[in-house]
Write a structure and sequence with these properties.
heterodimer; A: 671 residues; Rossmann fold; 16% strand; B: 715 residues; alpha+beta; 22 helices; elongated; SecA_X-link_sf (chain A); protein transport (chain A); SecA_DEAD (chain A)
């Protein structure tokens, strides 16, 4: 047996696990210091002189060398070539000449099957991915197809490959579109989406290349961990098999964390890494409805500022001394949970949180009498997910829904931990350089920026900042009327929450503008809506569901009229997400334009830069004209504050992981 | 604060059945009326302190209750005092980290290894991190102590105490009559080179007895002692023992006794040495006894007897006032005070402590910090003064440990502590403001700057009576001690050759006068020549007469005529310019000061004001003015009083017989004193303070460091 797995030394593999994955090892202080010195002081200046892309360039030559020879082969001969290269890849590793040959093979196969030939920059990107880099490609430059190169190469070497993306729609679409290519090369493809059974999942993960979402992957990983409880090493499994109890083996769905290519890496590595993934099961013991109702009733009598302090930016809420006293008086004489000071304060704090910090159609939607959590970064509903510690039940009572069972945590993991366990990890995104440092320090990925294939034709208009939300809606409707109705262009309006998308939809309806609405409540025909979004005079209002990864193809004649126009109606917490939405237009050399129409009443401004926003609002109200350039610092400040807070949470997550490893060591290793 | 009752990580522990390892022992203690439980781990000789509610949970950890059950039980029994789930997890983690927990599952082995590595590293750092105290463990003395258990118990019983008193008290009483012998020329004897060598040999032996005292007292109280070794304290080997087993003694006096045992033994040894010292004739043995006495009494009381240092007295104090961890809790309390009142973080939780404890924390924290800083600076300076190179390295190390480390910690705390998060901007602003304020003060605010030198009171020139020409003193024209006025003849000298010369000149003049008179009529031209000769001779005669009149020394000012050596003066030969006596009168005296070369530059260039204090009237401060400055450096002092032997600062070259020659060059200044009427005693010391132009402290310090490096390294 070789001493290494995918060029990773055996000693760096985690012990006591059912399948191969990298050990999370915290580098010692001196290692970190040495790395900092080497990376920061020595490589830093050199990197400025020498673009890291240059190191990847030779792959283009290596691939080109085989191109003509492969082109004249028949399909059958090409397949033979593909199976011949397998053993070489497995035995001699991923040496550039061999990888070049493999890439040429994949490129030729792609030309014949899906009719798309990889561009040279995509070869470079693919090689970067294979080397475990974070590849930054501009939006619409064909990341999906670039990822097939390393995926096929590693899969041909016999290692399971996971292509991880942000939502089911993308996972299914990408798996479907690339299936022909992989199958031509003799590789199987699977896709894991919500609602699949364990058997289906196991089948999907057993494929050479598996397309999945970050959430599904994390939950499958956690389920595997829980299924095996504590006797979980591969040695235990083998012993079990010897004893003939195959059943335990059947519990597993994954085959190991070998090679992960993370699409939209900044979203997964950064934006989603704030909340840990929690696998829970129903305890059966339902929360008492009466208790929740009482809690909400008491909470509603308390006054903000007097009885409790609320911090929207940090999203937390504390009772004041007076609030506690008031609560003591309110609950005087009551039995059960109300007789304990700590328990009642906790319950009322949760009730207040449910009332003040969680808004319908923003943080959750109510569908069919059920409270469903909306994922802020993808804009999608997360079924079967619930908030912890009774919060979910309180919100259900608040919305008058049927109470669900209280859930009990079985396992939890942060993305920071999960992805570091990949033996080889790489990522791709359109927006990485703002967070390159954090990704490097947490996941160890270096960022490589790939040059553009074709120059972008995107026109970015100056942002328009309105004073009130009503004004914003009016201007958006005006703009849509002009662009879609009069000019016949396609328009995409991006919103941050379900509620906001419905407001805009209502405003458009009032003007009689026909449009499609895509949000967590209206997600039935997502694929059709997206497919039609590029048609002439088509107006689409969407939450972040139509953000990252969505490829809107222009309808006939739209390109001539100026392509797709994207309107951003509210800035996101980070500039990257804004850029992602703008990235929906002007893809792959098409024309397109985008603009931001926001208002000073937007949450981002009010919560994260309250003082400055109020000042500007007062100035504008007093008739002082504010040039639109002046709003840039406001946006910068608000987004900086929001990012800083999120960054803090992420750092705390990582630190807490480490701390808990120490504190909870007695309970065995686990998630 | 409302910490949540439930924990997100509860699922990881809820089903575990923890069990306290069987060798751990619980002890019930009462500190200041509150019950606490000490959990002792004899294997690692560590002791952990728990509150009663934690103790309840710990005592339920018997491997049959799951953590979930533990929590339920705790809630049932403790009510509002029950810990939250996070606190319970933390408690379990603590026990695990102390290796006191067994669980029904295999713990994370990787974590065990990392932790042991980390602990070993920390141990090494503790041992070798501080160059002033390198710790080397040697062996386990427990078996040895067990063998002597009977004796040990006797020594630390009431009988032992009586015997101790019987020995030590008489010694104390006998010290009084022998005090002069003991203290005579104390510093000379102690710091002499050969004596330092004796101290170096005697010190470890005494300290070994000291540590044996701790160890045996621990044993007598029922504890075990498993670690004995040596600390290289500033390169001096000092033994130590680990007497932490004494922490669990129920009686606080018993605990304090263990702390005091070392000093007790030393005083006992000192008493024995004292008795022997009385009996033995002077010699090497007596010198050794003297040093034993010195170390075992003075030094131990100075260091071990000082509760501000973390030595014996600290532990005695902690035991007696029943505040365990006084030092750590004081600094935590001070951290709280600073954050709360300096940085203005309002939502902080005050460290749990009673009012009296807070008073202790406040004063102890302040006093011990200041004292430690002072002692470190003092030791560093002392060593730097003795061995410059090593001293500088040690001083830098000490500064790093005392200043840079705490500052880095403070900065990290300021930037990373989650408690300060919401107040970060403000805290950082205040802290930065303080730092910049301090920097501004040091760099920009001029501060008084002065150099102090020594000098002697000196008479002004006109008060000196000097021999104006060479000659033998014939007689005193004025009785010494009487009042004279300016111009009064004082001393008559004689010079026989001068008399003869005078006569010869007079005769020559007479001869030439006669010859001139004779030639005037006969030969006019010749007469003219003789006349010229005559003029010459007359001039010569005038000169001789003048010199003759110089043989009478006169008073140049009014005052009392004083002659230092009246009796042997007549008949003695004095050279021209030699001092014959003084006329002490109203003429204000001078201060002649000697400025070492490193200070001469600032004295010459930037002196604004000079203040002089004579040694006999310390309260009197005189204004001065530079009268003369000798531009070239000299090697001789104007008075032996300025040398080390005379009580001054300058080291004198003993090989030079000519006079007090200094080892380094000096410069002399004469300072005219204003406001001093008359002085009776000349040659006495004066302290002179040159006040320079005000300069910021940073500039002043930079200059002295620069000078220090220049003199020692020529850089």
């Amino acid at each position: 047996m070789s001493k290494s797995v995918m060029e990773l030394d055996h000693r760096d593999l985690a012990v006591g696990r059912p399948y191969p994955e990298r050990a999370d090892r915290e580098p010692a202080v001196h290692d970190r210091l040495a790395e900092y010195l080497a990376k920061g002081l020595i490589q830093g200046p050199f990197r400025r002189l020498r673009d890291p892309v240059r190191a990847l360039m030779p792959i283009v030559e290596y691939a080109a060398a085989h191109e003509n020879a492969l082109r004249i082969l028949s399909d059958e001969e090409l397949r033979l070539q593909a199976s011949a290269i397998r053993a070489k890849l497995r035995n001699s590793g991923f040496a550039p000449p061999l990888v070049g040959r493999c890439f040429a093979l994949v490129r030729e196969a792609a030309t014949r099957t899906i009719g798309q030939r990889h561009y040279d920059v995509q070869l470079i990107a693919g090689f970067g991915l294979l080397k475990g880099r974070l590849v930054e490609m501009a939006t619409g430059e064909g990341k999906t197809i670039a990822a097939t190169l390393p995926a096929a190469t590693v899969a041909l070497a016999g290692y399971p490959v996971h292509l991880i993306t942000v939502n089911d729609y993308l996972a299914q679409r990408d798996a479907g579109e690339m299936r022909a290519l992989y199958e031509f090369l003799g590789l199987s493809v699977g896709a894991v989406v919500q609602g699949m059974s364990r058997a289906e999942r196991r089948r999907a993960y057993a494929s050479s290349v598996t397309y999945c979402t970050n959430k599904e992957l994390a939950f499958d990983y956690l389920r595997d961990r829980v299924a095996l409880t504590h006797r979980s090493s591969s040695l235990h499994l083998s012993l079990g098999r010897l004893r003939g109890s195959l059943q335990r083996d059947e519990d597993l769905v994954l085959r190991g964390l070998y090679f992960g290519i993370v699409d939209e890496a900044d979203s997964i590595f950064i934006d989603e890494a704030r909340t840990p993934l929690i696998l829970s099961s129903s305890t059966g013991a339902g929360e008492e409805r009466l208790q929740c109702e009482q809690g909400l009733r008491f909470a509603s009598t308390l006054v903000a500022g007097k009885h409790f302090q609320i911090d929207l930016a940090e999203r937390n809420l504390v009772l004041t001394e007076e609030g506690r006293r008031e609560l003591g008086e309110l609950t005087e004489g009551l039995q059960g949970v109300w007789s304990s000071v700590r328990a009642r304060e906790e319950l009322v704090t949760q009730a207040l949180t449910a009332m003040m910090l969680f808004n319908r159609d923003q943080h959750y939607v109510v569908i069919d009498g059920k409270v469903q959590i909306v994922d802020e970064s993808t804009g999608r509903v997360m079924p079967d997910r619930s908030w912890e510690r009774g919060l979910h039940q309180l919100i259900e009572v608040k919305e008058g829904c049927e109470l669900t069972d209280r859930r009990e945590t079985l396992a939890r993991i942060t993305y920071q931990r999960l992805f570091r366990r990949y033996i080889r990890l790489s990522g791709m995104t359109g927006t990485a350089h703002e967070v390159a440092r954090e990704i490097k320090s947490v996941y160890g990925l270096d960022v490589v920026r790939i040059p553009l294939n074709r120059p972008s034709q995107r026109r970015v208009a100056l942002p328009l900042v309105c004073t009130t939300s009503a004004q914003k809606l009016r201007i958006i409707a005006d703009r849509v009327e002009r662009l879609a109705m009069a000019e016949g262009r396609a328009v995409l309006i991006g919103t941050r929450s379900v509620g906001a998308s419905e407001e805009i939809s209502a405003a458009l309806n009032a003007r009689g503008i026909a449009h499609a609405l895509l949000n967590a409540k209206q997600d039935k025909d997502e694929a059709d809506v997206v497919a039609a979004a590029g048609e002439p005079a088509r107006v689409t209002v969407a939450t972040n569901m139509a953000g990252r990864g969505t490829d809107i193809r222009l309808g006939a004649g739209v390109a001539a009229r100026g392509g797709l126009h994207v309107i951003l109606t509210e800035y996101h917490d980070s500039r990257r997400v804004d850029r992602q939405l703008f990235g929906r237009c002007a893809r792959q050399g098409d024309p397109g334009s985008c603009e931001a129409i926001v208002s000073l009443q937007d949450d981002l401004f009010v919560i994260h830069a309250g003082g400055m926003t109020r000042l500007l609002a007062r100035l504008v109200g007093g008739g002082v004209p504010i040039p639109s350039r002046l709003y840039q610092p406001l946006r910068w400040l608000a987004q900086f504050q929001a990012e800083r807070r999120h960054g803090y949470v992420r750092v705390q997550n990582v630190k807490q992981d480490r701390r808990l490893d120490r504190v909870l060591a007695f309970s065995g290793r686990g998630e | 604060m409302n910490a949540p009752l439930l924990s997100n990580w509860w699922y990881r522990v809820a089903a575990r059945k923890p069990k306290l390892r069987s060798h751990a022992r619980l002890h019930r203690h009462i500190y200041r009326g509150e019950v606490w439980y000490l959990l002792q781990d004899p294997a690692s000789s560590r002791v952990h302190r728990f509150s009663p509610s934690a103790r309840l949970i710990v005592s339920l950890m018997d491997g049959t209750h799951s953590v979930e059950q533990l929590w339920e039980l705790a809630n049932r029994h403790l009510g509002e005092d029950a810990p939250s789930q996070d606190e319970l997890i933390h408690l379990l983690g603590q026990l695990h980290a102390a290796d006191l927990l067994e669980s029904d599952v295999t713990p994370d082995v990787a974590e065990l290894f990392t932790r042991s590595e980390r602990e070993q590293r920390a141990r090494h750092l503790r041992s070798y991190g501080n160059p002033m105290a390198i710790r080397i463990p040697l062996f386990d003395p427990d078996r040895l102590l067990n063998r002597w258990a009977g004796l040990v118990r006797f020594v630390w019983s009431g009988w032992g105490a009586l015997a101790w008193l019987a020995f030590v008290l008489p010694a104390f009483i006998l010290i009084w009559p022998h005090w002069p012998e003991l203290s005579h020329n104390f510093s000379d004897r102690v710091l002499a080179i050969d004596n330092l060598f004796i101290i170096y040999l005697v010190f470890p032996a005494i300290k070994a007895l000291h540590e044996l005292g701790h160890a045996s007292a621990t044993k007598a109280g029922g504890g075990e002692v498993h670690d004995l070794g040596i600390i290289l304290l500033v390169l001096l080997p000092v033994p130590y023992v680990d007497a932490s087993a004494a922490t669990v003694f129920r009686s606080k006096y018993r605990r304090a006794l263990v702390g005091a045992a070392g000093m007790g033994v030393e005083l006992f040894v000192a008493a024995i040495a004292f008795y022997l010292w009385l009996l033995v004739e002077p010699g090497l043995v007596r010198a050794i006894l003297f040093n034993v006495m010195l170390i075992a009494s003075v030094s131990t009381l100075l260091f071990n007897g000082n509760p501000l240092l973390r030595y014996d007295a600290y532990y005695i104090l902690v035991d007696l006032i029943e505040i365990p961890n006084l030092a750590a809790r004081s600094s935590r309390y001070w951290g709280y005070l600073l954050e709360r009142y300096l940085l203005g973080v309002s939502d902080l939780e005050r460290p749990e402590a009673s009012g009296m404890e807070r008073v202790w924390f406040f004063f102890y924290g302040l006093a011990s910090t200041l004292y430690r800083i002072m002692v470190t600076i003092f030791i560093a300076l002392f060593i730097a003064g003795q061995f410059f190179f090593i001293g500088v390295i040690l001083a830098v190390w000490a500064v790093a440990a005392m200043a840079i480390l705490p500052i880095t910690k403070a900065v990290r705390h300021l930037l990373e502590n989650p408690r300060l998060r919401k107040h970060r901007a403000r805290s950082v602003t205040i802290a930065a403001g303080l730092v910049f304020g301090l920097a501004f003060f040091l760099i920009a605010v001029p501060m008084p700057y002065h150099s102090s030198v020594e000098g002697v009171l000196w008479l002004p020139e006109e008060a000196m009576v000097r021999a104006a020409s060479n000659g033998f003193v014939h007689e005193l024209l004025v009785t010494p001690g009487t009042l004279v006025t300016q111009g009064d003849p004082l001393i008559q000298s004689r010079e026989p050759t001068l008399v003869a010369q005078l006569r010869r000149n007079e005769a020559k003049v007479a001869e030439l006068q006669a010859e001139y008179a004779a030639q005037f009529v006969s030969d006019r031209a010749k007469a003219q020549i003789i006349r010229d000769k005559l003029e010459l001779e007359r001039a010569n005669l005038g000169l001789a007469r003048e010199r003759a009149s110089d043989l009478v020394a006169r008073a140049r000012s009014d005052g009392v005529f004083v002659v230092p050596q009246m009796v042997d003066m007549p008949g003695r030969y004095y050279r021209r310019g030699e001092l014959l006596g003084y006329v002490v009168g109203n003429a204000t005296p001078l201060a002649r000061v000697v400025v070492p070369q490193e200070a001469v530059d600032r004295v010459r260039l930037t002196t604004d004001r000079i203040q002089v204090r004579p040694v006999d009237q310390p309260r009197l401060v005189l204004e001065g003015r530079v009268l003369r400055a000798v531009p070239a450096g000299g090697e001789y002092l104007p008075s032996a009083a300025l040398g080390v032997d005379g009580g001054g600062d300058f080291v004198i070259d003993p090989r030079d017989a000519k006079g007090p020659k200094t080892l380094q060059r000096t410069f002399q200044f004469d300072i005219e004193l204003q406001g001093l009427e008359a002085v009776d005693h000349f040659g006495q010391h004066v302290f002179v303070r040159f006040e320079h132009r005000m300069e910021p402290l940073a500039v002043q310090w930079y200059r002295s460091v620069r000078l220090l490096l220049l003199t020692n390294f020529h850089v």
